[in-house]
Amino acid sequence: MKISLTNAGKRFNRDWIFRNIDQEFISGTAYAITGPNGSGKSTLLQVIGGAIMMSEGKAKYTIGNGQWAIDNTNAPEKEIEVDNAFQYISIAAPYLELIEEMTVVEMLEFHAQFKPFLSRITIPDIISIIGLKAASHKQIRFYSSGMKQRVKLAQAIFSDVPCVLLDEPCTNLDAVGIELYHQLIRDYGNNRLIIVSSNDPQEYSFCTEMISIMDYKTVKR
Ligand SMILES: Nc1ncnc2c1ncn2[C@@H]1O[C@H](COP(=O)(O)OP(=O)(O)OP(=O)(O)O)[C@@H](O)[C@H]1O
């Protein structure tokens, strides 16, 4: 998958959050969006994901020709409308809520109805990998914040999509959870487009491309 931003800018009311972003994001590469609190990292990630509209500029989404998800490497190349981009993109973010009344089994089964998981993995496998087997029949509202974060990461990383967006992925994780996160990236990140929004280096240590949001705060040229 390839996502190309051309002259991308976003403002809320009169305040430009970022402007003049020309950037290609390509499968097989991990990108980090960095910057201080309130600088616009989450906003840019949501613009990339097509969840919020940009105020100026253009985003182009292309899949296929070896740029698809892990399981479908030979699909022909085609351009995707922004309204359909969500089918090819998963996201884990602090502001996205889980359905607290469900167990993790119910939650993952529900998620899979809309966005299937990688075909080589089952829901019991996922629960076991993220260390929630013993808690699998508890309602999510009884989970700790770190357990909930593991579920959010699983939903994003195990979805059968070519692009995974991760906003502050280690929020609430302990040392074992952080190691699990890195293991998931090593095991399931290859060939995908991964974009991490974070100001914590341990969350994006594997990223090879850095985008500093502060470079896009200047007045329009
Ligand atoms: N819906 C909105 N309406 C108005 N302003 C908004 C909206 N969403 C975000 N903002 C503002 O846009 C700016 C960037 O917010 P954003 O959440 O993208 O920053 P961030 O870099 O991800 O911050 P953090 O590191 O604290 O998570 C902030 O000033 C925020 O108040």
TrEMBL record:
A GO molecular function annotation here is: ATP hydrolysis activity
PROSITE patterns registered for this protein in UniProt? ABC_TRANSPORTER_1, ABC_TRANSPORTER_2
State the Gene3D superfamilies in the record: P-loop containing nucleotide triphosphate hydrolases
Q: Which segments constitute the ABC transporter domain? A: 3-221
The lineage's top-level taxon is Bacteria
Fetch the PANTHER family from UniProt.
ABC TRANSPORTER ATP-BINDING PROTEIN ALBC-RELATED
Tell me what this protein is called.
Answer: ABC transporter ATP-binding protein
